[in-house]
Amino acid sequence: DEQQETFDLDLLLIAFSIAINTKIEERLKQLWDLSNDEDLSQNKMPLEKIFHLVDLLLFTHQIPSSKYAMKSNEKWPFQQYHQATGKDLVLKSLDELDEESDRQKLGWIERK
């Protein structure tokens, strides 16, 4: 009996993206296209799938090391940190996008 090994297709795609000698923007676009099993014309992907892909990017160290530590709510006796997950990074990025959008809407009011 030969034992068959199985691999996560997303992990293989992430690993393959490391080997491709292209710009980061191009690799991310290729990953998006390959990983998205939905209709590509809609530019939508389930959030859980995005969390999984970012987890794999973390696992393969394709995200800057400065993003790996996240502040926790525990601050006493000193600030506590935990290792970021794909979900942490995606949600933090979405929050930052919302904050940036709010700042742009405020315009000059915020600068006073």
Description:
The chain contains 5 helices and 2 strands. It has 112 residues and is mainly alpha-helical. Strands 1-2 form a two-stranded antiparallel ribbon. Helix 1 packs antiparallel against helix 2. The longest helix is centred in the last third of the chain and has 21 residues. It starts with 8 loop residues before the first helix and ends with a helix.
Regions with pLDDT < 50 over 5+ consecutive residues? none
In terms of DSSP E residues, the strand content is 5-15%
Give the helix/strand class. Answer: mainly alpha
- On the 0 to 100 scale, the average pLDDT is 77
Write down the overall geometry.
Answer: globular
The counted number of beta strands is 2
Question: Count of helices?
Answer: 5
> What order do the SSEs take from the amino end to the carboxyl end, as H and E?
HHHEEHH
Helix proportion of residues, in percent?
A: 40-55%
Rg result: 18 Å
How do the strands line up in the largest sheet?
1-2
Distance between the termini: 74 Å
- How can the largest sheet be summarized? 2 strands, antiparallel
Entry keywords:
mainly alpha; two-stranded antiparallel ribbon; 2 strands; 5% strand
